[in-house]
Amino acid sequence: MGASATIAAPGWRDTWKHVRYVATDNPVTLGAFALFGFFLLLALFGPWIAPYDPLMSDTTVALKPPSAAHWFGTDSLGRDILSRIIVAAQLDFGIAVSAVFASFFLGSALGCLAGFYGGWADRIIGRIADTIMAFPLFVLAMGIVAALGNSVANIILATAIINLPFYIRVSRAEVNVRRNAGYVEAARLAGNSDARILALHLFPNVLPPMMVQISLNMGWAILNAAGLSFIGLGVRPPQAEWGIMVAEGATYIISGEWWIALFPGATLMLVVFTFNLLGDGLRDILDPRTRT
Amino acid sequence: MLKMILRRLAGAIPNIVGVVIVTFLLTRALPGDPAAYFAGPSATTEAIEQIRAQLGLDKSLPHQFVLYLKELASGDLGNSLSTGQPVLAEIRTRLPASLELTLCGLVLACVTAIPLGVLAATRPGSWIDHLCRMLATAGVSLPTFFTGLLLAYVCYFLLGISPSPVGRLDVSFPAPATVTGLYLVDSLIARDMETFRAAAAQLILPAATLGLFVMAPLMRMTRASMLGVLSSDFIRTARASGLSGTKVLYTYAFRNALLPIVTTLGMVFSFLLGSNVLVEKVFAWPGIGSYVIEALVSSDYAPVQGFVLTMALVYVMLNLAIDVMYGVIDPRVGIEG
Q1: Predicted TM-score of the model (pTM)
Q2: Domains of chain A listed by start with CATH number
Q3: Res A3: pLDDT
Q4: Environment class of residue B241 by beta-carbon count within 10 Å: exposed (0-12), middle (13-18) or buried (19+)?
């Protein structure tokens, strides 16, 4: 990944055309876009779509398998699982989007500085990235959340930190190969400041590989957040979140009540799968040589 | 060779220093007053003060860091709040269980992913190639804790082909005499095939769960790197010289394709060690992952810190081993490096 030296950022006026091309070139990618749109709708309008109140418990219908009234069944407190899954989309997407964008902005800023100035800046920033990468990433996230306190904000922070190195590396590599390019010299001679050159001339080159990274990372961020909630960090019951719902269903699956864990788990899987397909589709189109 | 290993060792030192500094900072970042935290909720003011002095929290940050290093050097990771036991002893007894699980997961992933990747690379565009690609994308999308549950449900509840998915060994079997701490190896040493079979039966589901998750990156990398090597000139020359297909594939292409695969192992280990915690929780596996989850639930910080440090050190060591392996597979690396 990352060696996409020949790709220029698309002009803004072509953006729409390009998006359409990206979406329709491969039927799998198109399907992924459709699914993504569907999940986005759930995340945005979940509370209005959900047929029941996700927190309302009704012990008379506890532990009921899927039926016409409750499509995905009910959990041990009689809460409707479908409604909980729909409402949870907002929280899971929210965590992933905030975390990925935080690491995108911070990571590309640091990476650009390291790639542009080299020397000490490069060494220090490189060392930070290496130190983060010296940990198994999920373990580091656990440590951070445990140390800073058990809250959703800290899950976002931890997920952002463990993703940071990838963004630093991609943007550093992209800026580094171009810092002495002709157009950069020209911009400098024309009197542009370093900051302006970085922001307007170099940074746009980082965007195409970053889009792929963001899409692949989003799925990973959701997995991470759900994994942290599964072991009891971050989101707390009774709030609906896919990881917690799987954890709640875990004790029942051995005695045969499969639907409590299955539906939230399958949703989680489908969402991550969608993001990974999207990332692959984007990469195929933006940089066909790295296709695997 | 020895010189190269020493140089790699020296190269790992900055990482170890970084790991130690970060774990130190994480303890200092505890919300609220760490002394009150370590003293427990029912402690008096004097007790808190005493603990503050005991922990060295009344000293300056650099001074505290030196104290922390001294404790580490003497192997003191603190005591668990809930059990009062030293963390190091607990981690030491539980680590083999985690390592056994992780290594079996890795082996399972390697023996399935690498042949599949080679197969896909030799037939690009075929149905097997597309299937591998789909499998690879699906594999990285699997939440390990969910796959584990699903496997347990299908194999234990529905089919009844696996034992109750709890722990390392069925209660009716005594644990084999400890030599390595790995039940599979220990039961073989004791020539106890019954126990070996029972331990393997308990191990297969969690190991498969881990393996499924890390299969994807391995398979992708194998395919990509085999494709790259197979299209290179020396393969064409070997083919033109009339060497047999298998000889070209395994002696010439595969050995060269191994390098990028070995490099991916670093990332694979990061995934493995991380998802290990989740899988241990699902299968009630008595490794350090379940230990840390128990500690997290009771807000017991010393085990968490010890766990993060241990995992990071294990990971640094594994990366070191990968580096050395890299030199063995490709002697050119040693000369350049």
Answers
A1: 0.85
A2: 18-290 (1.10.3720.10)
A3: 43
A4: exposed
